[in-house]
Amino acid sequence: MARSRHAPWPVQVVTAVAGVLGDTAQGLTGREIGQLLALVRVPDVEAGNKRDRLAEALLEQQARQQASNCVIAFITEAMAPVRYAQQPQTFSRRQDDLNEVLVHVGLRVNNAGMLARGPAAATLSEAAQHAGSLRSELRRRSTHPEVLRYCTLEILAKNPFHASLEAVKSVADRLRQLTGEGLDGARLVDAVLMPGQGTARVAINANTTGPELDEQKGLANLVKGLFSMYRNPAAHEPRLHRAVTDEELLELLTTLSMVHRRLDSAHINP
Predict the structure, then answer these.
(1) What is the spatial distance between Cα 81 and Cα 136, in angstroms, rounded to a whole number?
(2) Which of 27, 54, 114, 236 could potentially form a cystine with 18 if both were Cys, beta carbons 3.0 to 4.6 Å apart?
(3) Segment of 88-92, 103-107, 142-146 carrying the highest mean pLDDT
């Protein structure tokens, strides 16, 4: 952005920026925050945790200067790509999280780590859409944590092909954890999820009436279909021959979330 004077940002936006960059697990270290504050000539403050420390320092400086330039400068220094040469996934994570906040003031962090103009949003749904972040859209859809646990690194690497492969693996792994079964693929589904002569080992309902059995078989067939569509081809075909778009990945992860939620309440039979 040009070196002009920029109007102060709302307190909520500055606090949210500090929440991203001062996050306990994924944010800057306390030492890094101190170094960056000194670099952009913002006086440090005493606070109980990193997020509060950063927020208070930036808000006090913004109030003194009656401008958001100090916040912009801090973000620009914190997001300089050279700082992430050995950890590009951390850059991607922070960029996505910051953009979900900055969209509320019509800004975004571009791939060069600089703030640029972008569309503004007034609601959380608009923010997720305008931020252009796959992770923010997955959060908006309340994607099941078991799905994200298996493919977050691939999503951060912006690799939907391998993200789809890892995400589908989450269902097979979950079925093995629930039952102790050692099979895989369609054989695993037939053994634990498909009703045979009696109740399925992983039963999503009572498995007694015709509709209940149809529902159980439907889930089993859905899981086998997902394996056939995504896991088997992805494991054997080069990525060059099987492109997975962000939109397709979103649809897949939403479907897998539904499967995991049915497994959350399933009854496990011996």
Answers:
(1) 21
(2) 54
(3) 142-146
Return the pLDDT at 201.
Answer: 96
pLDDT of 172 higher than 80: yes
Pick from 260, 2, 251: which is nearest to 134 by CA? 251
Burial class of residue 255, CB neighbours in 10 A (0-12, 13-18, 19+): middle
The DSSP call for residue 105 is G
Of 107-121, 138-152, 204-218, least confident by mean pLDDT is 107-121
Alpha carbon distance 206, 192 (integer Å): 15
Tell me the per-residue pLDDT of 34-48, one tens digit each, with 9 for 90 and over.
Answer: 999 999 999 999 988
CA torsion sign for 126, 129, 135, 138 is positive
Helix ranges (H only) for 22-107 are: 30-39, 50-65, 69-78, 88-102
Distance in angstroms (rounded) separating the CA atoms of residues 258 and 191: 21
Report the pLDDT value the prediction gives residue 193, as an integer from 0 to 100: 97
The two three-digit tokens of residue 96, written as one number: 């996505």
SS (H, E, C) 118-140: CCCCCCHHHHHHHHCCHHHHHHH
For residue 124, what pLDDT is reported? 54
